[in-house]
Amino acid sequence: MKITKTLMATTALTLAAGLAGAEEHVEMADDMTIVSWGGAYQDSQRKAYAEPYMEQNPEVSVTWDESSNEAVAKLRAMNEAGNITWDLVDVVASDAIRLCDEGLAMEYDPDELLAPAPDGTEAEDDFGDLIVSDCFIPQIVYSTTFGYRTDVEEWEGREPDDICDVFDLENFPGQRSLEKRPINNMEWALLCDGVPKEEVYDVLETEEGQDRAFAKLDTIKDQTVWWSAGADTPQLLADGEVVLGSTYNGRLFSLIVEQDQPVEMLWDAQVFDLDGWIIPEGLSDERLARVKDFIYFATDTQRLADQAKYISYGPARQSSAPLVGMHEELGIEMAPHMPTDPGNATNTFLYNYEWWADYRDDLDAQFQAWLAQ
Amino acid sequence: MTDATTGPDHVTGPTPDNAMRDADRAQAQASGPVLAADGKPLKRSLNRALRAQKLRALALIAPLLIFILVTFIAPIADMLFRSVENEIVAETLPRTVIALEDYTGGVPDEPVYEALGKDLTIAAELKEHTRLGSRLNYETTGISSLFRRTGRDVDDLGETYTDQFEDLNEAWEEPSTFVALFADPTWIEEQQEWAAQAEADRDFNEPEPRFYLADGVEEVFPETAPMYERFAQVIQTEDEDSPTEEEPWNIVYLTLYQDLMANPDIADAYDGEVATLLSNAADAVQGFETMNVKEFFLESDEDWADPEVWGTIKAFSPEYTSGYFLASADLQLTPNGIERQDEDQRIYGLLFQRTLFMSMVIMFSCILLGYPIAYLLSNLPLRTSNILLILVLLPFWTSLLVRTSSWKVLLQQQGVINDILVWIGLVSDGNRLVMINNQFGTIVAMTHILLPFMILPLYSVMKTIPPSYVRAAKSLGASNWTAFWRVYFPQSVPGIGAGCILVFILAIGYYITPELVGGTTGTFISNRIAYHISTSLNWGLAAALGSILLAVVLVLYWLYDKIVGIDNVSLG
Amino acid sequence: MVAATDTATAFVEFDRVQKSYDGETLVVKDLNLSMPKGEFLTMLGPSGSGKTTCLMMLAGFETATHGEIRLDGKEINNIPPHKRGIGMVFQNYALFPHMSVAENLAFPLEVRKIGKSDREAKIKRALDMVQMGDFAGRRPAQLSGGQQQRIALARALVFEPELVLMDEPLGALDKQLRETLQFEITKLAHDLGITVVYVTHDQTEALTMSDRVAVFDDGRIQQLAKPDTLYEAPENSFVAQFIGENNTLEGTVQNIQGDRCEVRLDDGEVIDAKPVNVSSVGERTKVSIRPERVETNRDRLQEGAHTLKAEVLEFIYMGDIFRTRLRVAGKDDFIVKTRNAPDQARLQPGQQVEIGWLPEDCRALDA
Questions:
Q1: For B349-568, which CATH class?
Q2: Residue of chain B whose Cα is closest to the Cα of A235
Q3: Cβ <8 Å between A365 and B137
Q4: Hey, are the CB atoms on B174 and A11 less than 8 Å from each other?
Q5: N or C, which end of chain B is more exposed by having fewer CB within 10 Å?
Q6: CB-CB contact of B316 with B86 (8 Å)
Q7: DSSP codes joined into one string, A65-102
Q8: What is the ipTM metric for this complex?
Q9: Is residue A16, in this structure, part of any structural domain at all?
Q10: Overall domain count for chain A
């Protein structure tokens, strides 16, 4: 057998192929299904992004879905069924990484998809290292932190100011609420078990470290209510069911500032996290074109700053920060309530997305087993 | 003295009817099949007449039948299938599975790592390795992160050879070299035509013709050709790019090195420039700096030297597995056979027990609360009983979440009930009762939610019990209690049976209410199923747990049939 | 049998019993009844006449609003049903469906704590009594209606009560079976010497089975008498109408003399009748004549018979008898029954005939 070919022929053909991927104009779809978390957060997105966008594009109609909680499972199911019904999904960074790894989210080019800052800075630089995955379009910076009631008699005037007060049942008795998942809880447990901040993830990687974290959590297990929806802790705090509980800072903001409850925030070892968009893999050209158009609009500097008028989460763009103004209804300055405010960020904990993307499955299984026992 | 209605023949004696039948039978025996008026056998005529009826009946139920098949039978079948299905390992790591065929334990040798390197490179390019990692992580914690980490490194596997080939001759950097070596000449022509058309017409939108290997090239390059083919396919389908433009993966160079080492005379199969290129390379590879794939993996993550990882891959390489079912029973499949799960991971036995126990408690609470109500309802005048029945049904018209949430408000420590107890002075403020986020909360809330399912069948059965039975019993000398217990109660058993089956089966599969009010001790197996469906995405385990739950229900149903008799169930 | 109404020998007694369910209307108005031991008494009446209520009060399932009910001399108003020791047979048999025949029969014996061997002997005897000895192991649902009723009967008798109440026990059976069972029940009752209160709305049943029949209407006993008296000498027009077939002619009393009176019918014709329920001249009355006491054949009319003109409207051949509908004194529903004898004429519709009857067969009752 002889295979004969000249190199020349194939080189010519390579050149030809290079010209093939030409750009073409595609019609945009008029319907969009946007998936988010519901509640005040989704409202802020609707007011800051969707409504102004629909004003400019009256032909567009947006359907909102509140399934971000189980976005990974649902996207996987849609992928298996071969029918993607979502156009844009709001997820936390670690979910975005998972989705990206599994090929369920679309990779994008920041400088092409996202608008540059008003001063001309390219989007990639404006968002900086918040673009933690090739699929993740950052939107806000939030933190998971603790709120506590200020009227607990048994505390005799003491107020928690250290994350480890969460584990201190002697000085701060009463029920606590923690999220029903390992993320954050494991880190706090290790921090309060004496592990230095920078070694937390190294320790957590080992079996002994995991046992240590669980042992620490065991000390408060029977005094803990486990929450799975962001609204749970604020409600429990307001009812007096728990005296101390973790939740997102925006939820606490509305509890303290908007609802005026006797609750304060514990700004210690709060865990920064990111939330943003992903575009599901496998959209038709028309739908993709619409989503891209929307994203370009919804992530520009002004829009991100606008969202902060409605909820106390920090915009992901550096250029948006100076534009953050007053609360839309209360008329108070929003900046001091942002997790990024220097006054609040004296002792923050750097959440490691990459690490959690890798270890989430492992620790979830163990954590759930630990909970059930 | 005859009652010629339903009595058997020996009591009633011959009747005209019987006599006719006997006569017919006798005639049939005497003269063969009975014929209809048109001379055809009567049986056949009858069958034809019945067939039309049957077809009509079938046509009538067909829509429902199809609906049930699609929405009920098919999903259950799919669930049962998922609980044993395990193609992902063999599909994602085909070479590794073959290389592990004789694996018996310990750290495998280089060929296994080589096979894994090839499989993992392709899987990582297709982004399938994370899914496999998650799948195997269900069995051995840590594999998910292992696959993710190595998945990021594995595209460097073989880089040593890539560099050396490229140092040897720049042609090895050219995608065209590989096209020339492996592609079928016809494909090259097709591709050229396609490229020319694409250049000429900007709206031309067809995909590039699918790559295929030249005849016989697999015999010449047994390792490289399949790997390059896979590369070309992935490039075309996943990246929508062309093999004519993309430099092959490092792993292709590795296989190329292997093929050249195995057969230095490879160049003989070619002529022209490529032949020279090949023969030069064949000479050079002898002096190449080599690399060890095993070392590469261990460098990426030392867990690759962990026999447990390999044992898991080996144990789960068949296309069908009992692993999910074993996991549901707190067991695990290891290369050494079936072993019990680590103590701190054994939860399913506990959860199954708890689910069954709590469902029973809920069922009995429903009987205790529902029976008197149903009795009252069935003995009241219709107008009054209808009003009361509406009150019973009222909870049905409120959303489940609202009802469950109101139980929260009532039962929590700062809730209404505790407040009242403290106010009355039964409980001190410091010792408020814990009635929620535990089993008690689940039982209370679920009894409330499921009560109508007990009352309604009870009511419909009790309504049909004539008052004359109890009267008869009393007239025979039975006291009120005896009349109730020996006469009324046994006749209401079908209602209890139906109510119990409904309540128990509903309870066993409930998950929203236990999730909301059950805390950690009041949750059911169904909460785990929901967790595996929506959070951990371990659908296989969810399916296995669901199948077991289904089996448990069927077994209980069978037991019920044995003990009480399924005819003794009346759903009204 | 004796038809004593003497209070001293009475076994079952209703004394001025009244019953109201709603406090507004009386279902049973003023019931006075006493029956001696061993009597078979039937309460007959249309539905809603109060007969079943009476039976239920006797059984103890309803309480009398007023008055006393006595059993064997003792007041039983406040004794619960299960302590009265009264056997009862229900219309729908009320056999316990979850028990076999033998278990059904054992039930009253068990609650009376009768020993096992004794129990079995009694059950066997009771079943044999109703000729159902082979059916002990069956379930009620496996029996025919007639068989079930026999078992119900056996069950009511197995604990040897002195009083048995039967609430339309044969109502659901077909005619032939009913007749057989009527005979059997009567025979059993007499053989065992038990006292029976039997409720029915079927007059034939009442007439053939009972020692005495109490005809109920509107919450009262209209007449309490032996069957033949009831049929032949009804005391009021309700009883006359209710028992058997009856022709009624309406008119006004013209003259009363001893056991004869003259009644002017509404069309002007004057007939002789026996005054039963009329007391004064000028009173409205309903004259009752049984169809079989009317003669259409002049030749057969007895001495002193009264005759009237009539027109044949319809002639029905019924085998043993002929049934002829006539227009008499302006009424279209006058029925005559004649025996199918060889010399009996078969009348044609439209034919004018002369009919007649004896004055003593013609009873002048209340209007």
A1: mainly alpha
A2: B409
A3: yes
A4: yes
A5: N
A6: yes
A7: E--GGGHHHHHHHHHHHT----SEEEEEHHHHHHHHHT
A8: 0.82
A9: no
A10: 2
